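Narrative of activities, Objective 1.

The group set out to show that a structural description can be obtained from nothing but a protein's sequence at a throughput compatible with the screening campaign. Below is one input-output pair from the validation batch, recorded exactly as produced.
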Amino acid sequence: MINQKQLENVESFKYLGSIFTNDGRCTCEIKCRIAMAKAAFNKKRTLFTSTLDFGLRNKLVKCYIWSIALYGAETWTLRAVVQKHLESFEMWCWRRMEKIIWTDHVRSEEVLLRVKEQTNILHEICKRKANWIGHILRRNCLLQRVIEGKIQGGIEVTDRQGRRRRQLLDDLKERRGYSHLKEEALDRTIWRARFGRGFGPVIRQTTK
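Output recorded for this entry:
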């Protein structure tokens, strides 16, 4: 209750351009972002499919379209189903740019060869997340305590079946624990060495 007014319980609401849902997941937000990015692409389709230099069109897509799709991506939790949505969107962009339709039966590997790209969108998200998380872990602030789960309150969940729910930092600490992640964040040189330019894009291994 705020100012003698009872707040309404809702399933979702939008705040600062992002959608928050009562289940705490970001699937709805990501789908909405992808839809907005596709609409922006279609609005400028003649530009992205024109006879401009290929490298320039590639940069335009990443600058104009990806910036819409990846707004707020630093806080996303990349579950497997979400990763598929994002990779599908990435291939959608390259296929539309090269005017490749589904009836052409062109495999994704061939499309990537034509546009001289790799599956890169997940790598871009992880870089943004690492940059943002690094700043948070180097500061003693409220957001750091929220991430570490040191805030009083919350809902106690018991008898949950299945695997543990994927969390925000899992994308960065898959091979090491949180203590190592925090220790590395305190040293900018080590952090940049791990998540900087050497933090390469996702390269899919294809089997013949």
